[in-house]
Amino acid sequence: MAGSLNEPILEPEPAAAASSLPGWYAFGAIGKTFSGPEYTYNGSDTDNVTDISISGFAGTVGFGREFARRGNLSFGFEADLTAGDMSSDREFGGTTPCLTGEEGCTADVNWMSAARLVVGAPQGATMPYLTAGVVFADIEGSADLGACGATECGFDERRLGWTVGAGIRHELSDRWAVKGEVLYVDLGSPDFTTDGVSGDFTFGSARLGMIYKF
């Protein structure tokens, strides 16, 4: 006789395991500030521009989360707070507004907070990434008497700007990772106390830090 009339029972194939996401993490970093804003003297037919160099080290603390993976890409966000010695020396350029007497020009970032998207391409334990977002910072600066008249002029304000950058992250264990990144920050034009001087407040930062995953 022929075999059983019952249909063979087919075992379902196991579902593919979903990519594990690291979830929430905290990080800390030490950064070196470089480059800086430009101050322009508007009191002549030819604009006089002086580059201000911001330098010094600052510390950063923050948190982040990877929230999705699509193909070979990772999507996440980070928020952080940075404070430290992000300031210039007295700059004496060959042009007004940083030429007169002993005043020169100054620029300082007292603190900075950022919220950024992070898009990475994981390659085993290493992930290069790009990042971009918004920045809110407390800044101040000054120009010389020659540009401002009888008194030194300047600004002291909190500004909203933007940042872009790139970095690389390497997993050391299930809990720990290291990362390094370079960021460019643009805070727009500060409001000097005179119409004779304007500025473009930008700077860069290179950071090296540790990540702890919860």
TrEMBL record:
<dbReference type="InterPro" id="IPR051692">
    <property type="entry name" value="OMP-like"/>
</dbReference>
<protein>
    <submittedName>
        <fullName>Opacity protein-like surface antigen</fullName>
    </submittedName>
</protein>
<keyword id="KW-0732">Signal</keyword>
<comment type="similarity">
    <text>Belongs to the Omp25/RopB family.</text>
</comment>
<dbReference type="InterPro" id="IPR027385">
    <property type="entry name" value="Beta-barrel_OMP"/>
</dbReference>
<feature type="domain" description="Outer membrane protein beta-barrel">
    <location>
        <begin position="14"/>
        <end position="214"/>
    </location>
</feature>
<dbReference type="Pfam" id="PF13505">
    <property type="entry name" value="OMP_b-brl"/>
</dbReference>
<dbReference type="InterPro" id="IPR011250">
    <property type="entry name" value="OMP/PagP_B-barrel"/>
</dbReference>
<dbReference type="GO" id="GO:0016020">
    <property type="term" value="C:membrane"/>
</dbReference>
<keyword id="KW-0472">Membrane</keyword>
